[in-house]
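Q: How would the structure tokens look for this protein?
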Amino acid sequence: MMTQVHANDRLWACLLFASNEKMSRDVPAWLKNYNERLEKLVGYTAVRSLGQNEVTLQTGRPAAIGLPGNMRIQLSNWVREGHGRFLVTIRFFRRDHALIETQARMSRGSPLFFRGPLWRNGRLVVAVVIGQRTGWDLWDPWGD
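A: Here is the predicted structure in token form.
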């Protein structure tokens, strides 16, 4: 059962590239707090952003975010569980082909990371956050 969303609930997604090569850590500032978690998840020492986007969530409608390389994230069947938690179905697409489909519990303002396919000399990683946007690089996880 879907519940109503707050008018300012937003879905943000970022496509990251992880490798062991020296490169700038070009990621949104607040995401740098998760460097250790990312290194453990993907096994690489460097991460940079390939692109990010966001959309406003609307009750009863899937949310889709376009990312570089003909990739997109689709969030559907999401349920607000209360206390800033959501149960969601997430699909990661390259063109019209679903590469990953999973169901997850997410907490407002806390990124969900998942590994995508190997690419070049590393791996693609997707970061997804549900929150209430107060600025391009700052999320307010406790906002109403």
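Residues 10-139 form one domain.

The mean pLDDT is 81.

Upvote if useful.
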